[in-house]
């Protein structure tokens, strides 16, 4: 029987690998998407019932589902060095002269490749199977992210042809521009914060614990390096051709260049054309082609002498400053925004750019009516870098910074030593009040699903809510059929949508479920200035209840581990405000958690770390890092991030940094292994 099931799993696996190969390597299909999905579901079910027969190259790795509590640290067999870079074509000529001098011949050539803006990855294959994927890290060691990398559909998990017994490939994991745009559109609709850029999103996605979420993000990967012994790759272009032959996703944009003049021509060719590609790029990588020449030129301490990176300068354009508007953030911070005549920049239309603060406006001496130079820093965020004074109107007047809140008319304040102006009308300035409600419902705070900024804004406009506590007075009738206005990101037109019955019910249920959120989430959700998630956890852990925190003095708060005077004063100021006291009373009456829930298991743990400071470092087999920290706290300890003279214990896992271990030994810190720690919990 078991043999029959194994045969069935093997047959389905091979069949799906075949169809994947046709789709991703040959751009053709023999079966419909529906048939493929049905076979995949059948294989998933069989593997779930018989995990012992699941293969390392199973296509079900593509959909993820593996949870990784911590990422193992892995040392690279071949160091992943960084490249020297330049913005100057003259520097490239100098580089060419150094290559010529180092080789003592003119008989060499270059390979030029686009520099993709993603995350460097190294992938090991053994016996034709993807075995391990490791991030660049510090160049010597990185994090193992194998489960997440297996979800990249263009990356072979195994091969349909003969390949070397062991080899390593390197490349760049990236998020395609259209995937990034769609992801932000979905987040906008869900009321979630927009992601900054594809590169950071790819990096964060690659380190997610749940590989099924990674699979949904649709990462891709270009490969450009082949390493190993006896591979027959005497030239870099031979390596690229082998990678293409074996089914790897190699960008077809690489080119062999006989001279440095050809290299510069390649750079000029792609300066604008690169914006048409599906991935963000920020430059060109130039490599000496022949491996023998690479070995002869060798390396410096940080980078190879046979390669260099040319970075494109941030693309700039000129636009007219039509107006300066001012936005009010959740904390009351005022951000001036430049409203511009639309201008094309790095493949997108730019209409607005942040001016940051009054100091920046004064530094640039920027005025309405000016023609300004706009750049996209890192090809993502527009910024104004200067003014074309030759075009300044003769009747131009210096900009006078706003002195009253644009939303509520309150006189702005600017604390000594700070660049930003604030509106102090914390409890009545509409954007601040709405911003705090949005913060309260956010994922890192109360994580209330099915509500978003546009819904919150509409509820405010209709006077159905005026603050956080009113959320818990909402009824099904309040939200059912609610008309929400939102801008279509593609057309810029405003559309209306109605909240349907099912969505309304989901909102009310989500609000009820949020009453189970832990005390530290409630505390963070209140939006006390300077109280981030970690600070909220420390305060909740120390004071245990909201009442104890409210009655605490400045001195009592500042004595909490790692809580400074600025945070302590902010907490005192917040809870001495009668309106905030009323808010807490209403949330308490609504049934929210206002004290730390005692875990009976951890409460019974011996207090070995009472009033002791503990540092956790390295990789652990039986514990996740957060789990370890929770146990330390439950045993009376304080967790610190770095070793100092105040550190009492270091819990040392595998692959921890030698410098940290040496420092602990020098300071006389007690060092515990994972086994030592486990024994202390029993």
From TrEMBL:
Its EC number is 6.5.1.2. The keyword Metal-binding applies. One of its GO terms (cellular component) is cytosol. Zn(2+) binds at residues 405, 408, 423, 429. Keywords: DNA damage, DNA repair, DNA replication, Ligase, Magnesium, Manganese, Metal-binding, NAD, Zinc. The keyword Repeat does not apply. It is an enzyme of class 6 (ligase). GO terms for biological process: DNA repair; DNA replication. Its cofactor is Mg(2+); Mn(2+). Residues 604-682 form the BRCT domain. NCBIfam families: dnlj, PRK07956.1. This is DNA ligase. It comes from Marinoscillum furvescens DSM 4134.
């Amino acid at each position: 029987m078991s043999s029959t099931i194994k045969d069935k799993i093997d047959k389905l696996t091979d069949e799906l690998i075949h169809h994947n190969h046709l789709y991703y390597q040959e751009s053709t299909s023999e079966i419909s998407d529906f048939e493929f999905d049905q076979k995949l579901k059948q294989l998933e079910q069989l593997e779930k019932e018989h995990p012992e027969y699941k293969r390392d190259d199973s296509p079900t790795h593509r959909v993820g589902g593996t949870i990784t509590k911590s990422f193992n640290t892995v040392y690279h067999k071949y160091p992943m060095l960084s490249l020297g870079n330049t913005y100057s074509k003259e520097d490239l000529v100098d580089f060419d002269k150094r290559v010529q001098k180092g080789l003592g011949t003119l008989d060499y050539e270059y390979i030029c490749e686009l520099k993709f803006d993603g995350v460097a990855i190294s992938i090991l294959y053994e016996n034709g199977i993807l075995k391990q994927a490791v991030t660049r890290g510090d160049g010597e060691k990185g994090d193992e992210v194998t489960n997440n990398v297996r979800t990249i559909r263009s990356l072979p998990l195994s091969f349909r042809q003969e390949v070397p017994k062991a080899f390593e490939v390197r490349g760049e994991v990236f998020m395609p521009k259209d995937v990034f745009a769609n992801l932000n559109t979905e987040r906008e609709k869900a009321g979630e914060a927009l992601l900054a850029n594809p590169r950071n999103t790819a990096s964060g996605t690659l380190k997610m614990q749940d590989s099924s979420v990674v699979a949904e993000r649709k990462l891709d990967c270009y490969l450009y390096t082949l390493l190993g012994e006896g591979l027959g790759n005497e030239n870099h272009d031979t390596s690229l051709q082998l990678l293409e032959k074996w089914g790897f996703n190699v960008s077809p944009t690489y080119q062999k260049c006989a001279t440095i003049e050809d290299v510069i021509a390649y750079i000029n060719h792609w300066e604008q054309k690169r914006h048409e590609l599906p991935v963000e790029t920020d430059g060109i990588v130039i490599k000496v082609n022949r491996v023998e020449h690479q070995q002869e030129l060798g390396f410096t301490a940080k980078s190879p002498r046979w390669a260099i990176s040319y970075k494109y300068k941030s693309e700039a354009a000129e636009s007219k400053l039509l107006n300066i508007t001012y936005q009010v953030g959740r904390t009351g911070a005022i951000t001036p925004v430049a409203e511009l005549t639309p201008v094309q920049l790095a493949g997108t239309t730019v209409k607005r750019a942040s001016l940051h603060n009054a100091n920046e406006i004064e530094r640039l001496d920027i005025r309405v009516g000016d023609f300004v130079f706009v750049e996209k820093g890192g090809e993502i965020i527009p910024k104004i870098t200067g003014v074309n004074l030759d075009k300044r109107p003769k009747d131009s007047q210096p900009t006078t910074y706003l002195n009253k809140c644009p939303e509520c008319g309150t006189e702005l304040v600017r604390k000594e030593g700070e660049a930003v102006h604030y509106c102090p009308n914390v409890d009545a300035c509409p954007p601040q009040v709405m911003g705090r409600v949005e913060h309260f419902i956010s994922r890192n705070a109360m994580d209330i699903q099915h509500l978003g900024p546009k819904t919150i804004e509409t509820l405010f406009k209709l006077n159905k809510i005026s603050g956080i506590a009113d959320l818990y007075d909402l009824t099904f009738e309040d939200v059912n059929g609610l008309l929400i206005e939102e801008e279509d990101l593609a057309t810029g037109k405003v559309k209306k949508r109605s909240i349907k019955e099912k969505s309304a019910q989901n909102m009310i249920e989500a609000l009820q479920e949020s009453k189970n959120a832990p005390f530290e989430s409630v505390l963070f959700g209140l939006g006390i200035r300077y109280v981030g998630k970690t600070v909220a956890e420390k305060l909740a852990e120390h004071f245990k209840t909201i009442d104890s925190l409210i009655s605490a003095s400045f001195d009592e708060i500042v004595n909490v581990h790692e809580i400074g005077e600025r945070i302590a004063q902010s907490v005192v100021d917040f809870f001495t405000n009668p309106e905030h006291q009323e808010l807490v009373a209403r949330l308490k009456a609504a049934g929210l958690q206002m004290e730390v829930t005692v875990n009976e298991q951890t409460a019974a743990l011996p207090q070995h770390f009472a009033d002791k400071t503990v540092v956790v470092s390295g990789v652990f087999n039986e514990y996740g890092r957060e789990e370890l920290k929770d146990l330390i706290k439950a045993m009376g300890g304080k967790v610190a991030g770095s070793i100092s003279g105040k550190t009492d214990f270091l819990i040392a896992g595998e692959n921890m940094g030698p410098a940290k271990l040496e420092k602990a030994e020098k300071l006389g810190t007690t060092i515990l292994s994972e086994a030592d720690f486990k024994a202390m919990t029993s």
